[in-house]
Design brief:
The chain is of the alpha/beta class and about 325 residues long. The protein is built from ten helices and 13 strands. The strands form two sheets. Strands 1, 2, 3, 4, 5, 6, 7 and 8 form an eight-stranded mixed beta sheet that branches. Strands 9-10-11-12-13 form a five-stranded mixed beta sheet. It is globular and about 55 Å long. Bound molecules: zinc ion. Zinc ion binds next to loops.
């Protein structure tokens, strides 16, 4: 998952309490009785209409992560938050780490790359320094196997890497970039400013060949978001600014023929947080996070929008059932 640094966060989705065990998502997916709750490879495929054509959108879970509860939400957030997280004894339940794969008519587009199994090894964070390594080991828990990795899961879906048009990164936290290694020949897209001023990014853990296309927003489209970068020529898939989690965090807005989908990265851990305006425990910029919340909620009032944060246990279900943000 993402590396967390003392002055910003990585994050995750929603806690899945035992009271939610009857959620329809779990009713619809066959899970053996003895399945480990932390190790379910829940990949779901949904169908949407794009430019008159039915296409597939895959929700691929690249393992799970748990964070401290005060990382998930912290109403007294301030500069001592990392200390508060460190002394917090309680972890959340494990949350998914989603990668989204859109079989767009112009080519397959990935949103983020998920986590990889190497994060389970004790010294994984060491290249980032002793303090960061200890902090992350103490405050993050992963459950990732080789089978969870995005490269492996794409193979199972029969998707060839050569068919991938772009890999879009919402930001540069570890749980969004650790699958980069699987796509040495793909064109990556990253917001230029995020690349220039990343937070919680460890270049030591990214392949040497990583050289993404640095894109700049244009002042048009995307409604309240004011600016956007068109990922596709048909301009139905836009990179839009959703800052707060990092200074230049971006999301991907996909305008299908019938409704819009927002692949929201780490705007928040889950849809409940957005609706209740509960800002996650650590953010680079709380003011920007609140403005981003306002923009998304405003957009959803005037457009049919499916909201999909990267760590929301119910995100794939909402996509599959076409459940809009209200
Ligand atoms: Zn993050």
């Amino acid at each position: 998952m993402a590396a967390v640094t003392p002055n910003h966060s990585y994050d995750s989705g929603k806690t899945r309490s035992s009271s939610e065990q009857e959620h329809p998502l779990q009713a619809r997916i066959h899970i053996p009785d003895d399945a480990d709750d932390t190790n379910r490879a829940q990949t779901q495929t949904s169908h949407v209409i794009c430019n008159g054509q039915e296409i597939k959108v895959h929700a691929i879970q690249t393992g799970t992560v748990a964070v401290k509860r005060s990382h998930l939400t912290n109403r007294t957030a301030h500069f001592l938050t990392p200390l508060k997280i460190s002394i917090d004894k309680h972890f959340t339940d494990y949350m998914p780490i989603w990668v989204w794969v859109v079989e767009h008519p112009e080519g397959i587009i990935l949103i983020d790359t998920g986590e990889n199994a190497a994060v389970m090894t004790p010294g994984y964070f060491d290249p980032a320094g002793t303090l960061i390594s200890k902090y992350n080991r103490r405050n993050l828990k992963f459950n990732i196997s080789k089978d969870h990795e995005i490269g492996c899961q794409l193979r199972k879906l029969g998707i060839k890497k050569t068919g991938i048009k772009n890999v879009v990164l919402t930001h540069l936290h570890l749980d969004h970039t650790d699958g980069i290694k699987d796509f040495p020949n793909a064109e990556f897209i990253v917001n230029r400013e995020e690349l220039r001023n990343p937070s919680g990014h460890f270049p030591e853990l990214v392949p040497d060949w990583f050289d993404p296309k640095k894109v700049t927003y244009k002042p048009k489209g995307a409604d309240v978001f004011n600016q956007a970068y068109a990922i596709t020529e048909s301009e139905d898939m836009l990179l839009i600014p959703t800052p707060g989690h990092t200074e230049h965090h971006a999301s991907v807005l996909f305008k299908t023929d019938a409704f819009d989908i927002l692949f929201a990265g780490d705007v928040c851990y889950n849809q409940r947080q957005l609706i209740e305006r509960d800002i996650p425990g650590i953010n680079v910029n709380y003011k920007k996070s609140r403005k981003t919340y306002d923009n998304i909620l405003s957009y959803a009032q005037r457009n049919k929008l499916i909201f999909l944060p990267s760590h929301d246990s119910n995100a794939a279900y909402r996509l599959n059932k076409t459940q809009f943000l209200k």
